[in-house]
Amino acid sequence: MKKIGLSLIALALIASSCKPTHEQKKDMNNPFFAQYTTPFEVPPFDKIKLEHYMPAIEEGIKEQTAEIKAITDSKDEATFDNTILAFDQSGRLLDKVNNVFFNLNSANTNDEMQALAREITPKLSTHHDNIMLNKELFKRVKAIYENRNTLNLDHEQLRVVEKYYQDFDRSGANLPDDKQAELRKLNDQLSMLELKFGENTLAETNKTFKMIVDKEADLKGLPADVVTAAAELAKKDSLEGKWVFTLQKPSMIPFLQFAENRSLREKLYKGYANRGNNNNAYDNKQVIEKLVTLRDQRAKLLGFANHAAYTVDINMAKTPENIHEFLMKLWTPALERAKVERADMQKMIDQEGGNFKLAMWDWWYYAEKVRKAKYDLDEAQLKPYFTLDNVREGLFYTANKLYGIKFIKRTDLPVYDKEVLTYEVQEADGKHIGIFYMDFHPRPGKSFGAWCTSFRDQSYRDGKKITPVVSIVCNFTRPAGDVPALLSFDEVTTLFHESGHALHGLFTDGPYRRTAGNVPRDFVELPSQVMENWASEPEVLRVYAKHYKTGEVIPEQLIDKIQKSAQFNQGFETVEYLAASLLDMDWHTQPFTGNVEAFEKASMDKIGLIPEILPRYRSTYFSHIFSGGYSAGYYVYIWSAVLDADAFNAFKESGDIFNPEYAAKFRHLLTKSGSDEGMVVYKNFRGQEPSIEPLLKRRGLK
User: Fold this and answer.
1) What's residue 7's pLDDT?
2) Residues 312, 316: Cα–Cα separation, whole Å
3) CATH code for the part of the protein at 384-564
4) Which of 268, 250, 253, 258 has the alpha carbon at shortest distance from 213?
5) Please, are residues 107 and 443 in contact by the beta-carbon 8 Å criterion?
């Protein structure tokens, strides 16, 4: 969706000396209809109310429609400035509203907001189609595109012309009228189905399941902080004296790792694995059936063999066949490694006298036991050293050492929830870069997982740079009693990961909104995943890993154990991820027959997935691909992992993980990432194409 400018109605009212009508007065009270007066012009969350969204979105649609009409009504020959640049600058008000509404609908939603999203979504879908299927606008864009090599355009101008033409073409602008009408209908249906899938998954995660434990004996094996957190959850539910476990990972994963009660591990795991598949009001099976069918129809309408071919045509991978070949190269060694891990765990079960075969709900529990036996290390030893506050400071230390930037805590910026933290990001000399929001803990209105987004992207307006406002949203372990928020090492790397995305957004600097920071989907995880590498480096661990009670820096023996166990359980982690990636590709390349469960089973049987492991996301809660924009694109994490392992290897080989030369080059990559094709940008940093060897070595698959 393109973006919009300040409300013409609001400007007219400001200039008018006439007494405004009641309706006008209402508009003037809408925070979206005036320039924000907050520090750094961040959204005034304390003033934005539910009733403000729809009028602002409708006005935003009206304004951008007028801006497009001004382009198409021009009698002048189409030029870069009067067509491409004018289009690129359009839609600022709509963008301003959408960036607040949809971000909060993911991070802080409620029933009323979800109902409003169902009203807003079809309006936006129609508006998008009205722009991308506008014949006169496309005629002007096409004229510039066809003559682009004779117009004396610079590299950035040439790229934005090509990208906009590609957008129109992929949105059906070259289709005949009857096919465009069919496409509009498909887009409308798909937008509502994707919204429905996300709502169902949120409800299944946060509303429909909780495991209540009323016997203290059933908590045996659980660390004290996990028990305390479960007691506090129970107290909130008026279940004093009991313990509650949910499907949120900070609650679920520790239970699966440490609880000795096998039947309760099974109950909790099945609650998680059956989300969206309970034949209730939130069941996602029919939603999936409709989604994949309509996506396939749309792809064929646009001239592609299937939805995956349509999606990856603009990615680095280019074709589904390339992706499948790439994934299967990793699948074979990863599966063999997972089978060895399974055998190690079964051996432990047998040694303990357990009269059962390892099941999927046993994996985390026995993986912890094997890790303890092999490396004298378990999660419970590490967590006391990973307080959220200290990990955050470790992240800031890393970014400062690499790029010289500073994070200044702000307490004067409005936030959408009292727990959200805000920071001003500055250069070493104090120059303002942007604003960084950090939202860490689960709550009922927050979607599952972790992500990075923005309330305002970097752009230019009348030659002036508009700085970004970025946000990361996570679901980390909460403080419990007098124990601060203690993170698992997985949560530690998640914080570094999402902050890598944030740095990408903060550093981006490009002249055009369409191309600035806009990279192929299979490149977008490079800035995030590369940051994970620093989290486990001894030099960085010594900075942030301090015991929450004593302040003691993590002992060298523990650091050594972390390093030695880095490849532990990598078979499982790689297999569950690859299984989900291959399932995603099957959903978007293979004809759908039968039912959702049968399709998923056939997909997993085909690659030989062992019964002790499920794909990381089963179909009915696979939000990445059915509501999160990663359809036929879940593979990108491992594609980008090749890039990130190769990139970090450059630092390691230099003998300095903060090598100033490579840090400067990588920051340039982040700053200018949208200025060229993904591989060109990467090679400008690295001087060569990436090698898969560092990734295989890192995961112990070679």
Assistant:
1) 30
2) 8
3) 1.10.1370.40
4) 268
5) no
Decide: helix, strand or coil at residue 175.
Answer: coil
Q: What is the DSSP string of 477-531?
A: PPPBTTB--B--HHHHHHHHHHHHHHHHHHH---S-TTTTT---TTTTTHHHHHH
Q: How far apart are CA 575 and CA 672, in angstroms?
A: 34
**Rounded to 5°, angle at Cα 100 from 95 and 102:** 90
Q: For 636-653, what is each residue's pLDDT tens digit?
A: 999 999 999 999 999 999
Confidence of residue 90 (pLDDT cuts 50, 70, 90): very high
CA distances from 613 to 315, 359, 607 (A): 29, 8, 13
Q: According to CATH, what is the number of the domain 285-377+569-634?
A: 1.10.1370.10
Calculate the dihedral angle through the C-alpha atoms of 136, 141, 145, 150, rounding to the nearest 10 degrees: 90
Task: Calculate the CA 234 to chain-centre distance.
Answer: 30
Q: CATH number for 3-132+134-170: choose from 3.50.50.60, 1.10.357.10, 1.10.1370.40, 1.10.760.10.
A: 1.10.1370.40
**Active site (catalytic) residues:** 498
Q: Which of 188, 201, 191 is nearest to 284 (CA)?
A: 201
Domain with CATH 1.10.1370.40 in the chain: 3-132+134-170, 384-564
Q: How far apart are CA 616 and CA 332, in angstroms?
A: 17
Sequence-ordered strand ranges (E) for 1-54? 3-4
CA distance 258 to 381: 13
What is the tens place of the pLDDT at every residue in 552-605? 999 999 999 999 999 999 999 999 999 999 999 999 999 998 899 999 999 999
**Can you state the angle between helices 111-132 and 92-107, rounded to 10 degrees?**
140
Phi-psi region of 442 (alpha: psi -120 to 50; beta: other; left: phi over 0): beta
CA–CA separation, 633 and 524 (whole Å): 11
Q: Tell me how crowded residue 119 is: count the other CB atoms within 10 A of its CB.
A: 11
What distance in Å separates the CA atoms of residue 541 and residue 566, rounded to the nearest whole number? 14
131/63 Cα distance (integer angstroms)? 12
| Residue 684 identity | N
Q: 102-105 contacts: CB < 8 A, separation 24 or more?
A: 103/453, 103/455, 103/471, 104/416
In DSSP notation, 249-270 reads HHHHHHHHHH---HHHHHHHHH
Helix, strand, coil % in the chain, rounded to nearest 5: 60, 5, 35
Cβ-in-10-Å burial (0-12, 13-18, 19+) of 353 comes to: exposed
- CATH 1.10.1370.10 residue ranges of the chain are 285-377+569-634
In this prediction, residue 10 has a pLDDT band, given cuts at 50, 70 and 90, of very low
- Please, which residues bridge with residue 483 across strands? 480
**C-alpha 150: how far from chain center:** 40
